[in-house]
């Protein structure tokens, strides 16, 4: 995929499943083994700018991965072992629940400071979390507003008001009061939004380019759509950080380059390419060649993601169920997958919950042939009165996604639907399509579970009540607002038995597919390449990214 959405929490019970499916390249030359060298500059080559680096707005894997270099979250993931382990990051441990998992208490580590040397306080974390409620700080995940008492009506700190359900009895203690039991709340707090922001340095909606650091690196300069330069935060102390290292002197992120050009540059391993790594997946046109080249195996990371690549059908614009069902049958997934690089990209999908995620059940309500079933599709269009439809399709303005758009256009043209492809700047793609003012008939989307549980897939993508509640960061691209689906989401949320809830989510997945609101396309793999002098890279099954928290450059 290209622009990848997810946050950074992963349910411990499902980590082993995710890792068991992970096939990652990288010999000792590009993994975390061996002693890291100090100094040098790591170059990161990215196709487009980050959607956001503001931690309270970040909801892409690229942004989340880069934020790990800049900001500390209450909890985090130590990925140096055989499987990720949840640990305290800003906090001394993974938190203490009470009152039936409705109250969570965290104590901050001593000695963690901001880039100017001032201490990070519980009040900074409280203020950071409160920022997520401001209409100006949009785009991030919805969990704070869903779970914190009073969150449904709170509008953020800029009006001078605080959220009473976040308490800071002293400078090193923060307590969250939830409106419902959340047994894995401490995994949610590993997401970027649960980090501190010093009020004096908050620049509001422009904080993306001015993020204040308590991590090993800080922003030296940020030129939108061109370059981000990170340098060492001299006040960061290794003794306070159980997750990160500070090995390179500088991280230079080059933005806005053609992905295929990035692929070929790093593949060449010449000059600066030796100390470079990519964050966006290899272009579909290059994936088969690169993934099958044995000389690149030690530098290639192929990480299965707990997520789904899909086509959303706007149910408020295409109201006829028969037409939506016809689209399900008409899409030729073989040509669609070809745009992303073929079989190396992932398996064909028929469900919205992907394998490895709690609640996954294997079923297929539509064509069992990935090439589709035109006979069935045409019959459904006939039942709908053979309408001559013209539909808009939103895609990122990358060659991979534009080829995808062509595949969809060809498929639907065979059943009398004209598709007008709307390429959108990749750096702003999700900000655009998530805003309810910018509705399309069809939208390309991908989604990776915030942790491998269906609770971070179906409720986020299909709770229609979120459309009005989060008009600038709506994740329900199908605009499905089915009262039966909403009621079932509420019912499952109250289940305390995980197996019972997972079974119910599997049934809900099938119920949603009966609405024909989305066309599942592929269960995804993400493949990236590094130069031969890049070391300390950890394949990250949480973000499905090559993690840079231990990265170094070889002399």
Strand and helix map with partners:
Layout: H1 12-20, E1 41-45, H2 61-70, E2 75-78, E3 85-88, E4 96-98, E5 103-107, H3 122-131, H4 143-147, E6 166-170, E7 173-177, H5 185-188, E8 217-223, E9 227-232, E10 250-254, H6 259-268, E11 276-278, H7 284-291, E12 300-313, H8 321-330, H9 333-340, E13 346-348, H10 374-383, E14 389-396, H11 399-413, E15 417-424, H12 429-433, E16 442-448, H13 458-462, H14 465-469, H15 483-493, H16 498-514, E17 518-529, E18 534-535, E19 538-540, E20 545-547, E21 552-553
Parallel strand pairs: 1-10, 1-11, 14-15, 14-16
Antiparallel strand pairs: 2-3, 4-5, 5-7, 6-7, 8-9, 9-10, 12-16, 12-17, 13-17, 18-21, 19-20
Helix pairs in contact: 8-10, 9-11, 15-16
Largest sheet: 6 strands, mixed
Question: What is the helix fraction of residues, given as a range?
Answer: 25-40%
Give the count of helical stretches.
16
- Runs in which pLDDT lies below 50 for 5 or more consecutive residues are 1-33
- Largest sheet, spatial ordering of strands: 13-17-12-16-14-15
The overall pLDDT average reads 91
Intertermini distance: 33 Å
Shape: globular
Task: Please state the CA-atom Rg, rounded to the nearest Å.
Answer: 23 Å
Strand content: 15-25%
Question: What structural category characterises the helix and strand content?
Answer: alpha+beta
């Amino acid at each position: 995929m290209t622009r990848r959405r997810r946050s950074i929490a992963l349910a411990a019970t499902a980590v082993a499943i995710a890792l068991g499916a992970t096939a990652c390249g990288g010999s000792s030359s590009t993994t975390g083994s061996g002693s890291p060298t100090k100094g040098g500059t790591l170059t990161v080559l990215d196709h487009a700018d980050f959607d956001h680096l503001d931690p309270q707005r970040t909801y892409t894997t690229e942004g989340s991965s880069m934020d790990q270099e800049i900001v500390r979250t209450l909890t985090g993931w130590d990925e140096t072992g055989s499987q990720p382990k949840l640990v305290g990051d800003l906090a001394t441990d993974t938190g203490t629940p009470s009152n039936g998992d409705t109250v969570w208490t965290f104590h901050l580590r001593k000695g963690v400071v901001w880039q100017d040397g001032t201490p990070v306080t519980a009040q900074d974390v409280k203020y950071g979390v409160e920022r997520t409620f401001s209409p100006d700080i949009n785009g991030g995940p919805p969990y704070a507003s869903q779970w914190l008492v009073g969150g449904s009506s709170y509008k953020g700190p800029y009006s001078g008001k605080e959220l009473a359900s976040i308490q800071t009895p002293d400078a090193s203690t923060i307590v969250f009061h939830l409106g419902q039991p959340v047994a894995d709340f401490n995994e949610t707090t590993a997401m970027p939004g649960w980090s501190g922001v010093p009020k004096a340095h908050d620049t509001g909606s422009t904080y993306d380019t001015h993020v204040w650091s308590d991590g090993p690196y800080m922003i030296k300069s940020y030129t939108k759509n061109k370059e981000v330069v990170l340098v060492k935060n001299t006040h960061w102390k290794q003794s306070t950080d159980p997750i990160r290292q500070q090995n390179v002197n500088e991280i230079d992120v080059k933005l806005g380059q053609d992905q295929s050009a990035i692929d070929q540059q790093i593949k060449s391993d010449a000059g600066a390419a030796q100390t470079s790594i990519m964050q966006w997946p290899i272009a579909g046109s290059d994936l088969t060649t690169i993934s099958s080249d044995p000389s690149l195996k030690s530098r290639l990371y192929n990480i299965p993601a707990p997520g789904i690549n899909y086509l959303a059908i706007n149910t408020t614009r295409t109201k006829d169920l028969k037409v939506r069902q016809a689209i399900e049958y008409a899409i030729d997934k073989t040509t669609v997958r070809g745009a992303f690089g073929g079989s190396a990209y992932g398996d064909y999908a028929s469900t919205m919950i992907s394998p490895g995620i709690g609640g996954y059940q294997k079923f297929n309500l539509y064509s069992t042939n990935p090439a589709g079933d035109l006979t069935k599709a045409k019959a459904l269009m006939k039942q709908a009165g053979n309408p001559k439809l013209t539909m808009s399709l939103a895609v990122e303005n990358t060659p991979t996604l534009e080829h995808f758009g062509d595949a969809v256009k060809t498929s639907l043209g065979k059943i009398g639907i004209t598709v007008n492809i709307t390429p959108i700047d990749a750096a702003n793609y999700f900000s655009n399509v998530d805003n309810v003012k910018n509705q399309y008939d069809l939208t390309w989307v991908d989604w990776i579970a915030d942790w491998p549980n269906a609770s971070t897939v179906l409720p986020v993508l299909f709770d229609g009540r979120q459309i009005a509640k989060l008009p600038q960061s709506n994740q329900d691209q199908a605009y499905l607002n089915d009262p039966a689906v909403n009621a079932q989401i509420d019912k499952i949320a109250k289940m305390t038995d995980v197996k019972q809830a997972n079974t119910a989510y599997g049934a809900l997945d099938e119920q949603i597919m009966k609405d024909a609101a989305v066309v599942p396309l592929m269960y995804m793999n993400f493949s990236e390449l590094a130069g031969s002098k890049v070391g300390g890279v950890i394949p990250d099954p949480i973000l499905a990214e090559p993690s840079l928290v231990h990265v170094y450059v070889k002399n």
